[in-house]
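User: quick one - fold this with zinc ion bound?
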Amino acid sequence: MKDRVELKTTASKITLANDTWVVHLPRFGEEGTHFHTLGLLTPYFKGLTEGRLMATRCTNPRCPISKGNGEMWLPPRADCPDCHQPMVWKEVRDPKGYIYAFTYVERGGTGLEIECPYYQIDVKMEGVGTIVKSYLLDRKPIKIGDKVRARFRTGAAATNTCLDLSFELA
Ligand SMILES: [Zn+2]
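Assistant: Sure. Structure tokens for the protein plus zinc ion:
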């Protein structure tokens, strides 16, 4: 077994619709293509393919929770769940954190594009208010609290899905 996890997937075709990405997922052949719009979250997925981790935060001064100075949310949300106003995009610089929780996946469900076994991890990142769910590239034994840093599938290696974000032990 290799010591790094690999993906069993290829890049999804992307088309543009009003500046937002529409992903074509030919999961069941060309006739079974699923069209999935990334809508207002397009900057997040586009950022991953460029090696940038984009989060959102609430800057509405009338927000009952953020009071205009919200923490960063990952995965991002287009609108604030507390005041329902549009959130603002902000890049997470030098994205790293620690393993908050994990699951060791030996057998995946049908269609899983991550080669098993792998660790599905929840990451608490510096400067981010939420917990990020992702997968770990390393296959060696881990424990809660281990430090990790973000990795990206960019350019020709990008899948144009959430799989473009992963983590490795720091
Ligand atoms: Zn708000």
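One thing worth noting: The CA atoms of residues 4 and 70 lie 36 Å apart.
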